[in-house]
Amino acid sequence: MKRKVIQTADGSSTIYIEEWGETYHSKFGAIQEAKHVFIANGLSLMEQQSVAVLEIGFGTGLNSFITLLEAEQKKQFVDYVGVEAFPISLEERKSLNYVSELNAVAFEKEFEQLHHSPWEVQVQVSPYFSLTKRQQYFNEIYYKNRFNLIYFDAFGFQVQPELWTVEIFKIMYEALQDKGVLVTYACRTSIIKALREAGFETEKLKGPPGKREMLRAVKK
User: Fold this and answer.
1) Around Cβ 123, how many Cβ atoms within 10 Å?
2) How many CB atoms lie within 10 A of CB 22?
3) I want to staple 84 with a disulfide (CB 3.0 to 4.6 A). Which of 29, 58, 69, 118 is the partner?
4) What tens digit of pLDDT does each residue of 98-116 get?
5) Alpha-carbon distance 19 to 77, whole Å?
6) Which pLDDT does position 160 carry in this prediction?
7) 94, exposed or middle or buried, with CB in 10 Å at 0-12, 13-18, 19+?
8) CATH architecture of 31-219
9) Is residue 66 a contact partner of residue 39, using CB atoms and an 8 Å limit?
């Protein structure tokens, strides 16, 4: 599918898939969305010194980079696993402006390493952040009681409904430790029902700019 890098409303970039009319991040602000959904309503809840995070849809690396910056600032160890079936190209990565938009020039090498690190190998990207990238489909995830937090950042239900099913959320449920948390930008009724059927307790929260609501789900 044809893709191109575009600018979102907060000045940060994302990738647009023309055939789907779908973007990797919110067109109302890629960085704003990532900070609101995954940091403010996810990582910020994790008070323990060491946190294991699973990202569903590694994509542009924005969510992992913001998490790395948070980990370094708070001196909180983060063991990060990003799953992605179709990695972005080197040319697309070069067009992303997250380092400058996040005022993170001091961490430019770390952002590059997020994308250049080998797949299927744990890499210590910074003192407080390790990364394992896995190139696989979401239904191939096999973790059990491994993570404290899941960033569920798959493409939208309107283009890939098969990623928002009870079967997928059961895999997520198994991957989380007890009381583990899943956060996602989506808040469709069918997604809430699927999460609950998979065993989660769900909560609607205020959404990021341009979106009324988002979801947080907790493993019972």
Assistant:
1) 15
2) 16
3) 58
4) 999 999 999 999 999 999 9
5) 39
6) 95
7) exposed
8) 3-Layer(aba) Sandwich (3.40)
9) yes
